[in-house]
Amino acid sequence: MEIVDITAQDGLLGPLLLARSAVDRSAALRGDAAWLEKAWADPATRVVVVDDGNALARRSGEEFSLVFSAPADAPAGERYLLGVDAGGVAYFAVSAPLPEPALGASHGRIVSPVAASAVPDGQVVAAGLRQVGSLLGDLDAGLLVYAVALEAWHSTHEFCPRCGSRTEVRSGGHVRVCPRDGGQHFPRVDPAVIMLVHDEQDRCLLARGPQWPEGRMSVLAGFVEPGESLEHAVAREVAEEVGVSVTGARYLGSQPWPFPRSLMMGFFARATSTELVLDQEEIVEARWFGRAELLAALESGEVRLPSGLSIARRLIETWYGEPLSGDW
């Protein structure tokens, strides 16, 4: 299977950093027990350990790279096949506690986004996608997104929802089977729409949720409901959260957001009304910004935008026309 480059979505300014990938997911091999056993016995196979969304990463210059081990050196835990690269190397994730030596180092665990220069070159740290996702290469970013998403799903689906029996991992970590009733349970994602709303004056609408401190603003977003199209979800969410009517929803790109299992689908939508009526449980502040006004608010520190890891940042910068500063 050819690996498709999807890092530059049509119409978006800049890449979607969690949509990168450089391996064939090799779905046809997941049910081949003999191949899985052979791949696990191969010392060339690479294994990344993932623990509650974190993995070990090493700073190398201005980037980070995942720390892999051979299968023989990997800890015991559930195994998930992540795929095979163009050179035939197989990649697995193992859900297990991270090795202790790295956690005892001075930069043992990173809990907020970091610049490469903040960590000594060669230092190994425990970190998640929010902390180092933008600093990983295409191969490692794709592998970690995949591993984190699978680990999150498995951690909440250990038992059969029908009979309560403990389920068993099959198909390289892509199915859980109930030994009592034979039911198969597959990893799921939660589809969500995220939209930059602009009006006839080409102002964009940014908002702040009640869980965010003052100044932290982003575009609107929400989950798609059962039986609902993406376009209807865009219009419904905007109307519910800020009381604005929109039309002309235009799809721009998507990326996984495995916190724990969302798939974010990005849109532009044109407002046909501009009066703001906020749902205070969801939105405590919303404002229309022209480009000059947004730039001034960012430069003064009055407003801070989502990180470059998010599709929200890409939507805002695409509307603005060039990269912006002022991360959360």
TrEMBL record:
InterPro entries: NAD-cap_RNA_hydrolase_NudC, NADH_PPase-like_N, NudC-like_C, NUDIX_hydrolase-like_dom_sf, NUDIX_hydrolase_CS, NUDIX_hydrolase_dom, Znr_NADH_PPase. Belongs to the Nudix hydrolase family. NudC subfamily. The keyword Transport does not apply. The keyword Lyase does not apply. Its EC number is 3.6.1.22. This is NAD(+) diphosphatase. It is an enzyme of class 3 (hydrolase). GO terms for molecular function: metal ion binding; NADH pyrophosphatase activity. Pfam families: NUDIX, NUDIX-like, Zn_ribbon_NUD. Residues 187-311 form the Nudix hydrolase domain. One of its GO terms (biological process) is NADP+ catabolic process. Keywords: Hydrolase, Magnesium, Metal-binding, NAD. Its cofactor is Mg(2+); Zn(2+). It comes from the Bacteria. It catalyses: a 5'-end NAD(+)-phospho-ribonucleoside in mRNA + H2O = a 5'-end phospho-adenosine-phospho-ribonucleoside in mRNA + beta-nicotinamide D-ribonucleotide + 2 H(+). It comes from Streptosporangium sandarakinum.
